[in-house]
């Protein structure tokens, strides 16, 4: 009978992925594996932006990570949108880039949402669906062929701008709701919802002021809202870089500010406790 391998020999067969994943604060859970290595709840949340539960842990064995795909559509659209709002280079109007509202953002977000749903990643699925319909809804307002403003007294009328302002107020509360739940993921992802919430409320104020004829203050509020959305885009891009650097085995462990360890045990741990009773 051949002798059993020593701990040193076993360690030498550790994959590069395992070595990369073992960053500060990461511990392995032998009950949930991906490929040939176990994934801790912290690492799972870092890659999929959702708390680790049994259904989600099973899905990652069979599919590539769709999270950066959806986020890429989101950040490209948000970067473009924010720079136009801030008037960089004298930019005004969204008609030339209306594709960001229907193709770049929503298509990648919806594709990512579907695969997050298949894999059982609840919060990421909800987040991508939320951002996808936001871009689709806002894009409809930018299509001149629909003539939405013509049913009012023009695009500068008080009634028209008040309707859009109220629409953005509701979106602010939606982002606030997601911000609360994102506090179980990481600081960067939570920051996206926080700054998006503030941004849409500021943009709501810009529409209110446009309707009342205070175009100077409306312009300042629009610029401020655009600046906050620019921050949102930077945070989103950073998450894309973090996830892609891990998936491509770059050997760099960028932090996201894990918050999951601050909360009570997830369903996987609760299930283990129930089995032990």
Automatic annotation (TrEMBL):
Region (Disordered): 1-26
Molecular function as annotated in GO: acetate transmembrane transporter activity
Primary subcellular site in the record, as a coarse category: membrane
Transmembrane parts of this sequence: 69-88, 94-115, 122-143, 163-181, 188-207, 227-246
UniProt feature coiled coil, ranges: none
Location of the protein in the cell: Membrane
Record's bilayer topology term: Multi-pass membrane protein
Composition skew (Basic and acidic residues), residue ranges: 11-21
One GO cellular component term noted in the UniProt record for this chain: plasma membrane
Swiss-Prot/TrEMBL keywords: Membrane, Transmembrane, Transmembrane helix
Any Pfam family the entry gives: Gpr1_Fun34_YaaH
UniProt cross-references to InterPro entries, sorted A to Z: AceTr, Gpr1/Fun34/SatP-like
UniProt entry tagged with the keyword Transit peptide: no
UniProt similarity note: Belongs to the acetate uptake transporter (AceTr) (TC 2.A.96) family.
UniProt-recorded name of the protein: GPR1/FUN34/YaaH-class plasma membrane protein
Natural source organism: Hortaea werneckii
């Amino acid at each position: 009978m051949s002798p059993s391998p020593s701990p040193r020999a076993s360690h030498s067969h550790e994959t590069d992925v395992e070595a990369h994943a073992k960053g500060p604060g990461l511990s392995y859970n032998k009950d949930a594996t991906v490929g040939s290595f176990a994934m801790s709840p912290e690492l799972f949340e870092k890659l999929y932006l959702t708390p680790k539960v049994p259904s989600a842990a099973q899905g990652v064995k069979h599919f590539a990570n769709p999270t950066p795909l959806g986020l890429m559509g989101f950040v490209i659209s948000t970067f473009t949108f924010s720079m136009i709002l801030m008037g960089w280079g004298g930019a005004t109007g969204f008609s030339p880039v209306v594709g960001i509202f229907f193709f770049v953002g929503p298509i990648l977000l919806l594709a990512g949402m579907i695969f997050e749903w298949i894999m059982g990643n609840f919060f990421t699925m909800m987040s991508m669906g939320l951002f996808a319909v936001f871009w689709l809804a806002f894009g409809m307002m930018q299509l001149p062929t629909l003539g939405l403003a013509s049913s009012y007294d023009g695009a500068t009328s008080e009634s028209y701008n008040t309707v859009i302002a109220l629409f953005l107020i509701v979106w602010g509360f939606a982002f606030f709701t997601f911000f609360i739940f994102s506090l179980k993921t990481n600081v960067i992802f939570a920051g996206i919802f926080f700054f998006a919430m503030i941004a849409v409320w500021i943009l709501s104020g810009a529409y209110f002021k446009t309707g009342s004829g205070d175009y100077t203050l409306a312009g300042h509020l629009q610029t401020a809202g655009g600046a906050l959305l620019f921050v949102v885009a930077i945070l989103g891009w950073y998450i894309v870089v973090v996830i892609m650097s891990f998936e491509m085995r770059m050997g760099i462990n960028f932090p996201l500010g894990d918050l999951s360890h601050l909360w009570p045990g997830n369903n996987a741990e609760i299930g283990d406790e129930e089995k032990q009773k």
